[in-house]
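Human: Cast an eye over this sequence-structure pair and say how the chain folds.
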Amino acid sequence: MFVVNVEGAIQCNGKWLLIRRSEKEEHAGGSLSLVGGKCEIEGNSSDILERTLKREVLEEVGIEVTALRYVNSSSFVTESGINVIDIVFLCHLESGEPYAKSTEEVDEVIWMTTSEILAQADMPAYLKNNIKLAEKMLQNIL
């Protein structure tokens, strides 16, 4: 069985929205990441990935996103042995100003350019890869 996680690559004014995950988080506490979270069991439903991402972004950083476009999917195993499928979407910031709304999950909101993210030695490789892919998609859209 897998946990299904979704993340949003959100860019505004040339910078990507990242969060510093709360130290309280079981997986990757204290690290930088995109905004997102786990899908909940809903039985029969449609657009679960998109609805989950919109809900998680609003809950964690207080903004609304639209125009979700698939970027990438991957899988990993958490430190506690949980298998996760992770799906990243490029999102448009529709409204709001992001802040650490859910302090149980988010310690800080950070805006960084692609080059700043790629230059960070301690930035996870998967995050750098997702930003590069989202940046490439964004360039193809404009």
